[in-house]
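Practice problem: predict the structure.
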Amino acid sequence: MHCTVSPISEPGSIEPKESLLIIAPHPDDEVIGCAGLIQRSLNKGNNVYVIILTGGEASHNGCCGITSQELITARRGLAININRKLGIPTKNLFFLDYPDGKINYNHQETDKLSRLIKNIHPHAIFIPHKGEGWNDHIQAGNIIRRITKEMTDIRLYEYCVWFWYYNT
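Answer:
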């Protein structure tokens, strides 16, 4: 199965010098789903920003003898490293503290997310595909749709991370 970034607003291509924002529910989703897009966009001279919503702490619940905080620290460190290697400056990478596995609009982090989006003022936002089936991915997209509902100058696109797994 092949998955491409699909527009959910008016069709359009990403132009040089535009600002792009990738919303990742967990550390690594932005790389798995958008690494090629990130590199092509940076090569065009685009500003690319990434907001990672959780620390990914639920990925190893009850495993490995490490605490949730140790896992968050490790996964965020890996995210910083790989995004730097892709060419994203550390100042363009943001971490929020939604609880892994329980992302929802009513969490206090939604205010921070909304402020970040307004400050970045991207031309396009990339969110996980609605057919992913993973609740945090679905909720991340829903939150962004609500936040940007009145922001008609922002194009929304969906990207795939676990699409193949759910065979949607």
